[in-house]
Specification:
- Helix content is about 50%, strand content about 15%.
- By secondary structure, the protein is of the alpha/beta class.
- The chain has 2 domains: about 50 residues; about 280 residues, Rossmann fold, CATH 3.40.50.1820.
- Strands 1-2-3-5-4-6-7-10-11 form a 9-stranded mixed sheet, sandwiched between helices.
- α1 runs antiparallel to α2.
- The termini are far apart.
Length: about 400
């Protein structure tokens, strides 16, 4: 009843603040005045925190908030060193192995990896969700498609789990037959809540784009039973992560087959760095680099017939700027790609509510597209293998 976004909770806090202020004025004892002032300050602070939470619609329950701050929401996510063997069905023995594997086949499994990028020299946390099908015998030889999910700013990869609930949504859609099973990869896109790198290679700074679009896919495709980067990989994000998804997909058009943009923007801002905190031009004044990392300019520069990932665009109707940006980018894409989905969510703005509502149609569209692309790719490879085999055998001898 008194959850973080409850109207009753806000009313109680207002009344409590008013009562404390009355006590502060009415009492004559200095000690009581200090106590009343401290309590009033604490109430006002909590009221402000809850207002921000309600505006951005981050946490709807106290459990979600506690899980995020204590990491208990991803507490079941273990380091890869202890789960590499579990993922392949080896390593543990006896009843414990059977219990863990049995749970994984029902609920899926979340890994918490520490991924070091050989090209970018960046080391960060990456969460990976393996769906229940990953552990089932029927999928033993199946290499799963992947969706790389990029969070917003301020934010962290756990937001996809604790706030958006992407794993639960995916499993429900698969059970309903509305989606295909995929592996979800959720990297730390900035390295801190006070940092905004926009998934770009900062001139003279962190090589974020290289880490997210090259290092992470390379490591994940080597460690797990998933598709290599290409038509079997998708990328999606919201807010700043939406810009990341658009730019990553366009910059690396042969590494991603699908891209989803929720309330994203399509021209980069300045980056915010830490230690010391400062605002900088990510491109160091280089106009060519800026144009190469501006999705609007990238699409304009495409030649007819150029390879282009399949795009999905979404925004909340209540945010006019998001809608205008989404519609304009959709029009540019439509010159090169037919039937680009454009989803404008009613009653939503630039908030978690909108992104939670858009995740189901996005996952349904992207997972089925990935599965079909993988199937078509495997059929093509099988056909090529047969042709090569026939060529090596030579013409069949005719009978006399």
């Amino acid at each position: 009843m008194l959850e973080p976004q409850s109207t009753l909770l806000f009313v109680i806090l207002v009344l409590l603040f008013a009562a404390l202020m009355w006590w502060l004025v009415a009492t004559r004892r200095m000690v009581l005045r200090v106590v009343a002032a401290c309590l009033a300050f604490a109430v006002a602070m909590w009221f402000g925190v809850l207002v921000v939470n309600k505006y951005f619609n981050y946490y709807q329950t106290w459990g979600a908030a506690i899980a995020d701050f204590t990491n208990s929401g991803v507490g079941s996510a273990a380091h890869f060193s202890s789960n590499k063997l579990l993922a392949s069905g080896r390593g543990k023995s006896g009843e414990d192995h059977l219990v863990y594997l049995g749970l994984a086949r029902q609920q899926g499994y979340t890994l918490r990896l520490v991924v070091h990028g050989q090209l970018s020299h960046i080391t960060r946390t990456v969460y990976v969700y393996l769906p229940p099908q990953y552990f089932r015998p029927a999928y033993k030889a199946y290499r799963f498609p992947v969706i790389e999910l990029i969070h917003g700013q301020p934010g962290e990869p756990q937001d996809w789990i604790d706030v958006v609930g992407v794993q639960v949504t995916l499993d429900q859609l698969v059970d309903e037959g509305s989606a295909a099973p995929v592996v979800l990869v959720m990297p730390d896109a900035n390295g801190g809540n006070t940092v905004s790198l926009q998934c770009l290679n900062q001139v003279g700074g962190p090589q974020d784009l290289t880490y997210l679009a090259k290092d992470v896919p390379r490591v994940i495709s080597h460690l797990l039973r998933v598709q290599p980067p290409g038509v079997g990989w998708g990328v999606a994000g919201y807010s700043e992560g939406g810009f990341c998804a658009a730019n990553m997909a366009l910059r690396f058009r042969y590494s991603y087959g699908f891209a989803g943009v929720m309330s994203g923007y399509f021209a980069p801002f300045k980056n915010q760095l830490a230690n010391p905190t400062r605002i900088v031009d990510p491109f160091g004044g280089n106009r060519r680099l800026r144009a190469e990392n501006t999705p609007i300019d990238e699409v304009r520069a495409l030649h007819p017939g150029a390879v282009l990932p399949q795009f999905w665009i979404g925004a909340g109707r209540d945010d006019k700027l998001d809608v205008s940006s989404a519609e304009y980018f959709w029009q540019l894409l439509s010159l090169h790609q037919a039937d680009v989905p454009l989803v404008l969510t009613a009653g939503g703005g630039h908030t978690m509510t909108t992104w939670r509502d858009e995740v189901p149609p996005l996952l349904s569209w992207m997972t089925r597209g990935l599965a079909a692309a993988v199937l078509a790719r495997e059929a093509k490879l099988h056909h090529q293998h047969k042709v090569i085999s026939r060529h090596h055998r030579g013409p069949r001898a005719s009978s006399v």
